[in-house]
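Journal club prep — side note

Before the paper discussion, L.F. wants everyone to see what a predicted structure for a comparable chain looks like in token form. Sequence:
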Amino acid sequence: MLQGCYETLPLQQGPAPATVSVQLVMNDKGRLAVADKLGGSVDRVEGVVTAQNADTYTISVTDVYQLNGNAAKWEHESVTISKDGVEGYKIHRFNQARTVVLAASVTAALVLFVVTAGIKATGSSATSGPPGSTGQTGPSH
């Protein structure tokens, strides 16, 4: 559900921002260069860029996504990646509007569930006869 609170912007070129989470999108040359550090078939490397110069990015890695769809969590290990091994970057950011919609939807579903469960729990069973009787008939003595 937390994914609903975030969005990934389209591929961008130029210097990557250093204050937000980015996904560096690897090209074939980059995949080969980082294979020994990050594993084979790396599609994207996510984290915060901690340093960059004309030739490299140094990124505090939080996630590594592979071409086959697998992903691995990382604990902010610092990795240096050559800029010529990167197609570009995507900004991965918090989206307040999506979060509000998600929270409202979850709240509405929860209220609907509680109201529906409450109606079912307060249902009455029918008995025959006057109030206070057990509904059984038979000979009186």
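L.F.'s comment for the group: Residues 2-94 form one domain. Keep this in mind when we get to the figures.
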